[in-house]
Structure formats: C-alpha cells, structure tokens
Amino acid sequence: MASFVSRSASSALRAASRRAPRVLANAPRAASYSLLSKPAAPTHRHGTRGVKTLDFAGTKELVYERSDWPLAKLQDYFKNDTLALIGYGSQGHGQGLNARDNGLNVIVGVRKDGESWKQALEDGWVPGETLFPIEEAIDRGTIIMNLLSDAAQSQTWPKLAPLITKGKTLYFSHGFSVVFKDDTKVVAPKDVDVILVAPKGSGRTVRTLFKEGRGINSSIAVWQDVTGKAKEKAVALAVGVGSGYMYETTFEKEVYSDLYGERGVLMGAIQGLFLAQYAVLRKNGHTPSEAFNETVEEATQSLYPLIGAKGMDYMYNACSTTARRGALDWAPVFEKANLPIFEQLYESVKNGTETRKSLEFNGRSTYREDLAKELAVIDNQEIWRAGKVVRSLRPDYKPESE
Ligand SMILES: NC(=O)c1ccc[n+]([C@@H]2O[C@H](COP(=O)([O-])OP(=O)(O)OC[C@H]3O[C@@H](n4cnc5c(N)ncnc54)[C@H](OP(=O)(O)O)[C@@H]3O)[C@@H](O)[C@H]2O)c1
C-alpha cells in the first residue's frame, strides 16, 4: 500500500485502469438500465425530457432526469473509470448491482471474510477480480464510493484517507461524514472531487425499482469541485447506480433533512404517536386488537397508501364526513403541539448533537448486540405483539414473513 501511495497520481490512475478490465466478466453490457430481461434500448415511460426546471408549489427547482444519459453515453463517460464500492451493506448491494448491470466497471471493497464479504460472494463478485479487501479496492478504483456505515466511515478514515489520491473522485451517499467533520474527522483531501448521490430510500428499494425498470429519486450535491466536472459526474453516477430523477441539493441540506426526517415523521415520531394513541385506547378499556386496528392497521393498510397515491386532501375526501370533520379540527391541535418538538429536533441535528450520539452508539464494539436489545423491547411492546396477530388475519398473510 505504502508504495502505491508514494507513486505519482497519474501513474496510479493508469495502473488502476490497467488492473480493472473495461467490462468485467460478470458484468455484461446490459441492454438497458431498466428491466434486465428487456433487450431493448432504454426508453422512458414519459419519453425523453431531460434536465428541467419544475415549479414545486411556487418554488422553482432544477431536476435532472436519466433520459439525458442513455446507456451508451453513460458507459462511454465512465469507460476509463473503475467504481470502487467500499462497503457492501444495504446501499452497497443496491447501487453496486445496478451499476454492474448498467455495464460500468465496478469492484467491491469490504473486510475480508466479514458478513459483507459473504454477501458479495453470493451476489457474484469474484475475489481477486471484482472483490477485494478495502485498501486494495481503493487502490484500484478511480471513483471511491464510500458506502461504509457512517460510524465506520469515521473509524476507518485515518487509514483510508491517504489512499484517496489526486485524480480519484470521492463519493458519499450521505452528507454526514464531511458536514460533521469536526466530530467524524473525515476531512476530504483537497485535490479530489467530492460528490454525493443519496438515494431517497433503502438500498433494497434502489435495487427493486431498478429491476422494475423504474428509478429511485436521489439527491445529488457537490462538496468540492477540483475538475470542474464534479456535478456532471454526480448526475451520471446517480443514473449509473439506478436513479430516475436527481434533485440538486447541498451536503448540509441533505444531511440535515435526512437526520431530521428519520427522527421525525418517518420513524421516531410515528412510533411515538402510535404508542401514545394506543395507550389511551387501552387505558379506556379497548381491546388490543381494537386499539391496534384503529392506530396502525387502518393507517398503513388503508389510509397512508391513499396519501401516497394522491395526497392528503384525497385521503380526507375518501373518508366519511364524520371522520373528515374530526380530522380537520384536530390536525391543527397536533401541529401546534408538535411544532416546538420539531424545532428542538432540527436544532439538535444542526448543532451536531444527533451526529455525536450516532457516532458514539454505532461506533461501539457491542453495537449490534446493543441495538438488538433495544429492538427486542419494541418487538415485545403490546402494540406490536397485537399487530402480529392482526397481520396473521390478512388474506395475503405469509407466516415466513414474520
Ligand atoms: N440504508 C439506507 O437506507 C441509506 C439510504 C441512503 C443513504 N444511506 C447512506 O449510505 C451509506 C451506507 O449505508 P448502508 O445502510 O448501506 O450501510 P450499512 O448497511 O450499515 O453497511 C455497513 C457496511 O459497513 C461495513 N463496516 C461496518 N463497520 C466497519 C468497520 N469498522 N470497518 C470496515 N467496514 C465496516 C460493513 O461491513 P461488514 O459486513 O464487514 O461489517 C458493511 O459493508 C451511509 O452513508 C448511509 O447513511 C443509507
């Protein structure tokens, strides 16, 4: 490793591209970035439109579309690059397989014989060809996609940073490490482009949507542009890993909104609201099944999908006049009660408190066991135990899914 680092950047780049075959044996040039079984040239459901300015409720925003990047252009753009995916968790799996199916040169770098190594083997990455220990993958790559867990990005940075030499591109899927650099110590080298592609969904969804011929929405951003091509590269990489639409943002905005959202309505607030509503029903003598049905089952099975499909007003309209009247009256009460909590949460994200907590917890050697204990507590809450029985009565219930 030391000898590689001391080589000049250009010779390192040449060496990297020599070592990486243009098109890897297990990555045939796919016919499409959509459904793999379709041999046809890529088409888009809505036709070719490309980058555009859209009016989002009165605010104009630029949206990039993958139709600007037909596969041939994408493959040509990256023909001299090797995408080195560092980490093969949820995002590594989804982004890596999509980029490979798109005919890009992809290699994976993970800890030898760890869980991710085994997973990568199962997915067809070949040791010594497309699967390497982390340092070797960085050595061979020109685009270093840091998809380790956020805590691991911080822990491994002192060892990995010197390997990210001039001419390479550093890629993240979260603004976490570089924005909170005072806490993570991830200070990007000055002479490389630093870009972000953050899919708005789990890595499994990144993969599923791609296989269905659709593409996930992703945020893209530039932290550092030394080549003048950083944004273009971010958009192209977003398409390469399976995005359909790319929304431009900054590293800061991406990480603030992401940490805030998952602590809020997406995950933290929803569990809190479910528990509070359920508790009052139970206190007033309602059975577990009734309390669960009125809190979770109807929400997830009937009402929230309507919001997803056509918006909140549509869902209200689809409900009884009685339900609608009550919801209209009580929504502002909940809004007022929750606004100060959301203000407090945003501040806690922005001032780094949430980052420090996350680094402390996820950096523990006992992290997996500690997490399992906390999740077991949730699994054992009456509401979720009742939920298992309610779910078992669904017509499409499959026992192995529990
Ligand atoms: N998951 C999502 O929904 C999502 C969505 C958008 C963006 N992101 C971002 O994408 C990035 C990757 O997230 P992820 O969810 O895919 O991560 P993850 O599933 O938590 O992946 C963890 C990876 O990090 C490796 N790792 C953990 N500790 C390590 C250490 N000390 N040394 C070396 N490797 C270590 C693991 O390897 P082993 O198996 O060897 O432990 C595994 O390959 C993060 O920046 C995340 O914020 C995630």
> Topology as H/E string?
HHEEHEHEHEHEHEHHEHEHEHHHHHHHH
Our Rg estimate from Cα atoms comes to 23 Å
State the share of residues found in helices, binned by percent: 40-55%
**Strand-residue proportion:** 5-15%
> What is the strand tally?
10
Structural class: alpha/beta
Distinct ligands: NADP nicotinamide-adenine-dinucleotide phosphate
Mean pLDDT: 89
- The outline comes out as globular
Task: Give a structural overview.
Belongs to the ketol-acid reductoisomerase family. Its EC number is 1.1.1.86. Its cofactor is Mg(2+). The protein is α/β, with parallel strands linked by helices and 402 residues long. Helices cover 53% and strands 13% of the residues. The protein has helices spanning 2-6, 9-19, 71-77, 90-101, 115-122, 134-140, 150-160, 176-179, 181-184, 203-211, 230-240, 251-263, 268-283, 288-310, 312-318, 321-350, 353-362, 367-379, 382-392; strands at residues 52-56, 59-65, 83-86, 106-109, 131-132, 143-146, 169-172, 193-199, 216-224, 243-248. Strands 1-2-10-9-8-7-6-3-4-5 form a 10-stranded mixed β-sheet, with helices on both faces. Strand 4 (106-109), helix 5 (115-122) and strand 5 form a beta-alpha-beta unit. Helix 4 packs parallel to helix 10 (203-211), helix 12 (251-263) crosses helix 16 and helix 14 (288-310) packs across helix 19. The longest helix has 30 residues, at 321-350. The model is unreliable at 1-30 and 39-47 (pLDDT under 50).
